Amino acid sequence: MGVIYVLSAQPADKYSRLGELLDFVPMLSSLVHGVLYFVLAALLIRLLVRLRAPRTFRARVFVAVAPVLLAVVYGLTDEFHQGFVEGRDSNVADIIADTLGAGCAALASYVVPGWRDSSDGTG
Q: How far is 48 from 70, CA to CA, in rounded Å?
């Protein structure tokens, strides 16, 4: 979360070359948002699994849904924060990309074998 905050707190003029690239390549900004929030949600999922291995269906749903909700709420607050940073603005497309990235992490935790299961502490 700290990395995302530091990146979003930078004024737009600090990233002028990056801004040109983002304008040149369509949807690159959304892809970057999605990847960052995928990583955030994946780390939160791994944290919850390591704290307590989910054995019941209800616990597994919590481990998948809670990190996504936390990531989405953080994305909303991040976009609100960006509205106060010089040269930056809030963008609904970024919130959608954040949500999709976090949701993909939750999906990956079920699809990728052993990704969520760390009962032995190594997974």
A: 12
User: From the CB of residue 47, how many other CB atoms can be counted at a distance below 10 Å?
Assistant: 11
Entry field: residues in the chain: 123
- 110: its two tokens: 């079920």
Tokens at residue 87, please?
A: 């040269």
Residue that has been written with the tokens 């963008």 in this structure: 91
Amino acid code (one letter) for 40: L
Give pLDDT tens digits for 35-73.
Answer: 999 999 999 998 988 887 778 888 888 888 999 999 999
List, in order, residues 6 or more apart from 39 with CB less than 8 Å away: 105
Q: How many CB atoms lie within 10 A of CB 75?
A: 24
More confident residue, 91 or 54: 91
Q: Token pair of 46, please?
A: 């791994």
pLDDT of residue 51: 86
CA trace torsion 72, 78, 80, 81 (10° rounding): 160
